[in-house]
Amino acid sequence: MLKVGVLGAGHLGKIHLRLLQQSEKYELVGFYDENQEYAEKISKEFGYKNFNTIAKLIHAVDVIDIVTPTLSHYKCARAAIKSGKHVFIEKPISNTIEEAEEIIALANEYNVKGQVGHVERFNPAFIATKNMVENPMFIETHRLAEFNPRGTDVPVVLDLMIHDIDVILSVVNSKVKNISASGVSVISETPDIANARIEFENGCVANLTSSRISMKNMRKTRFFQKDAYISVDFLEKKCEVVKMKDAPEVPGDFDMILQNAEGVKKQIYFSNPDVTQNNAILDELETFADAINNNTTPIVTLDQATEALRVAYQIIDCFKK
């Protein structure tokens, strides 16, 4: 079992601590939180060992799980990697592109593995459909959330939209050609609602909308490709696939047939792929353990997370124009 320590015991950090303690692939050694009064409270309540310095925790483990505020991701990752420890970093990978690139360089230099917590890659509805997404040419995403003061220290693009950016980059096999976007600050000092249009070199277009001031929560993505439409509900963990094939010569009484202006007939097929429920956070942590033990590439690499951050900042830069 890999010895693991958690940096940061906030809302998400506590979830990581609980899941790592349950995991059969890790031995949870303990955690560090800069608020030692709070850390002692967590330690007494849940029984996790509280370390009073980051250095002591890093020294005691094989893997460091960084669940601190984004501003400190780089500093924590740098300290862990330079001690030869593998790092799991919550999204986004870091606060700046330069920091992310240095994390990559350090991981290569010290020959350690890194994975970033883009958890929607492990969403069971996405897992059930991702192999059906083939060369999508239009993608539409809506990620809407009710207002929560937690996370408003960063633009909604880094808080919410980056999930969809990462998912889109994972299925579109092409480079980004152009980005246009607009954002509005309603409650926070940074934009609370944003819309972005990403154009890829292969002609694919992605339209993304994110809001943290909505009346209801929604996390839906739709992929449109030749002869197919795939809908993924990340919140409800449901999916639907609509496919079109050439209509048979003699359609059945209940077959749904469409005919275009040129007289070409297509039959429509509806399906709801089986979704195997999982704990996405546990899965992302355990697949990272597998990557370390088997010396394979993590599912969400440091490079991929850096590319998602790069696109996110290109979107944010559009707000300033």
Features:
alpha/beta; Rossmann fold; Dihydrodipicolinate Reductase, domain 2; 2 domains; 9-stranded mixed sheet; 5-stranded parallel sheet; 33% helix; Gfo/Idh/MocA-like_OxRdtase_N; NAD(P)-bd_dom_sf
Tell me what you see in this structure:
With 321 residues, this protein is α/β, with parallel strands linked by helices. It has two domains: 2-112, NAD(P)-binding Rossmann-like Domain (Rossmann fold, 3-Layer(aba) Sandwich), CATH 3.40.50.720; 126-276 and 311-319, Dihydrodipicolinate Reductase, domain 2, CATH 3.30.360. Helices cover 33% and strands 28% of the residues. It is built from nine helices and 14 strands. The strands form two sheets. It has a nine-stranded mixed beta sheet. Strands 2-1-3-4-5 form a five-stranded parallel beta sheet, sandwiched between helices. Helix 7 packs across helix 9 (302-319). It starts with a strand and ends with a helix.
Strand order of the biggest β-sheet? 7-8-9-6-10-11-12-14-13
How many structural domains? 2
The global form is globular
Poorly predicted runs are none
Q: Helix count? A: 9
CATH classification, class level of the largest domain: Alpha Beta
Sketch the major β-sheet. Answer: 9 strands, mixed
Question: Terminal Cα separation, in Å?
Answer: 51 Å
Helix content, binned percent: 25-40%
Provide a compact summary of the structure.
The protein is 33% helix and 28% strand.
How are the secondary structure elements laid out?
Blueprint: E1 2-7, H1 11-22, E2 26-32, H2 36-46, H3 54-59, E3 63-66, H4 73-82, E4 86-90, H5 97-109, E5 114-117, H6 124-129, E6 138-144, H7 156-171, E7 176-184, E8 193-200, E9 205-211, E10 218-225, E11 228-233, E12 238-246, E13 256-259, E14 265-271, H8 280-294, H9 302-319
Helix pairs in contact: 4-5, 5-9, 7-9
